[in-house]
Amino acid sequence: MRTYEESRPSPDAFLKVAQAEENEKKQAKLKIFLGYAAGVGKTYAMLEAARQRMSDGRDVVAACVESHGSNDTDSLLEGLDIIPKASIDSMGVLFSEMDLDAVLARRPQIAVVDELAHGNAPGSRHGKRWQDVEELLTAGIDVYTTVNIQHFESMNDVVAQVTGVVVTETVPDRLLDLAVEIRLVDIPPEDLLQRLQEGKIYIPVNEALAAEQLFKPGNLMALRELSMRRAAARVDYQMRAYMESRSIQGPWPVAEKLLVCVSGSPYSERLIRTTRRLADEMKATWHTVYIETPGAGRHASENRERVWRDLRLAESLGAQVATLTSTSVAEALIGYAVKNNVTKIVVGKPTKPRWREFLSQPLVDRIIRLSGSIDVQVVSISEEQKRSTKGVSQPVSSTLWPGYLKSLILVLATSLVCEPAHRYLAPTNLVMIYLLAVVYAATRLGRRPAVLTAILSVVAFDFFFVPPRFTFAASDPEYLITFGALFTVGVVISTLVSQSRERAEAIREREVQTASLYHLSRDLAVASDLPGILDAMVRNIEESLGAQIAVFLPEGERLELNRANSELTLDMKELAVADWAFEKSSPAGRGTDTLVSAALLYLPIATSGDVLGILGVRLGSESDYASPLTRRLLQAFVTQAALAVERVHLGKQAEQAQVLQARDSLERALLNSISHDLRTPLVSITGALGALRDKSRVYDADAWEELLDGAFEEAGRLNRFVGNLLDMTRLESGALKLKQVPCDVEDVFGCALAALEPQLGEREIEVRVPIGLDLVKMDMVLMTQVVINLLDNALKYTPLNSGIKLAAGLADHMLNLVISDRGPGIPENDLKRVFDKFYRLPVPEGAGGTGLGLSICKGIVEAHGGSIRAENRGGLQIVVALPLT
Question: pLDDT by residue (tens digit) across 816-838?
Answer without folding.
Answer: 999 998 888 888 777 777 777 66
